[in-house]
Amino acid sequence: MKKLLLPLFCLILIHCKKSEAHSLNANLVNVAEEDKLIAIDSSAVALKSPVVDASIRFPSEKTISEKTTAISKKIIKNGNLRIQVGDIKKAQDQVSSIVKSNKAYIQKEEFQNNDNEENIDLTIRVPHQNFDALVNSFSDGVGSVLSKNISSDDVTEEYTDVSIKLTNKKIYLEKYRDMLKSAKTTKDILEIQENIRELEDEIDVSEGRLRFIDDRVNYSTLNLSLYKEKVRTSATSKVGFGSRFGDSVTEGWNSFVAFLLGVISLWPFFLLIPVLVFLWRKWRNRKKK
C-alpha cells in the first residue's frame, strides 16, 4: 500500500507544478497585453516606472485623439496704420468715436511732442469680425494714410497640437492620481507625486498658451499712429489751405528766430571788429606817411 501511495503523491505534485506554470504564463501574457496598451505621447512626461497596480491601464494615443473635438480655424489679424492729420485733438475725437462704434477698446496710448511733430501711438483691440471695418474707417475719415500694413497668421495647427497634448496630459494626470491611491511604498508615492507635479506645471503652461491664442484670435490688434507735422511743405501735406498757411507763417517765424539766435551766438567775433578796424586804420596811416 505504501508503495502505491508514493508514486501517486509524486504525480499529484508534478500536476500542481504544471498548473502553477500555466498560471504564471497566463499572467505574463496579461502583463504583455497591458504593456501594448500603453501608448505614451511624445509630449507627455516620461514615466519613472514606479511599482503600481497593474490593473490600471493608460489610454492609447488613438483613444485620446478620438476624444479631441474638431477645432475651427484660428486666424490672428494684426495691423499697423500711420496717418497724417491736421489737428491732433480733432483726430483723437474721431478715433474715439470710431473705436466705440466698432466695439473696440484702446489698450495703450502714448503721446510725443517735439519741435517738428506731434505724435500719438495707440494700440487698439477690436473684435475680429470688426477689424476690416475699423481699418477702413480710419483710412477714409481721419487723415492722409502714410503707411498701412495688415497681416493674417493661421495658428490652427499650433492650437490643435497644444489642445491634443493638453488632453493627453490631463488623462495621464488622472491615471497618476489613481495610481497614487494604490501605491504601497514611500518610494512609489514620492515618484508618482513628482510626476503629478510636473504634469500639473505643463498643463498650466498649455492652458495659458491656449488662452493667449484665443485672445489674439477673438480680438485683433491694430497699432495706430496719428502724426501731425509742425513744419511741412506743400509737397508733403494734403490738409487744407488754412492749416498750411498757418504752418508757413510759423515756419517763417521759426526761421527768423533761428537766424537771430545764430547771429547772437557770434558775439565774441563782434568784439574783435573794433580792434580790427583800429589796426587797419593804423596800417593805412603808416602807408600814407
TrEMBL record:
<dbReference type="Pfam" id="PF14257">
    <property type="entry name" value="DUF4349"/>
</dbReference>
<keyword id="KW-0812">Transmembrane</keyword>
<feature type="domain" description="DUF4349">
    <location>
        <begin position="73"/>
        <end position="281"/>
    </location>
</feature>
<feature type="coiled-coil region">
    <location>
        <begin position="173"/>
        <end position="216"/>
    </location>
</feature>
<keyword id="KW-0175">Coiled coil</keyword>
<keyword id="KW-1133">Transmembrane helix</keyword>
<protein>
    <submittedName>
        <fullName>DUF4349 domain-containing protein</fullName>
    </submittedName>
</protein>
<feature type="transmembrane region" description="Helical">
    <location>
        <begin position="256"/>
        <end position="280"/>
    </location>
</feature>
<dbReference type="InterPro" id="IPR025645">
    <property type="entry name" value="DUF4349"/>
</dbReference>
<keyword id="KW-0472">Membrane</keyword>
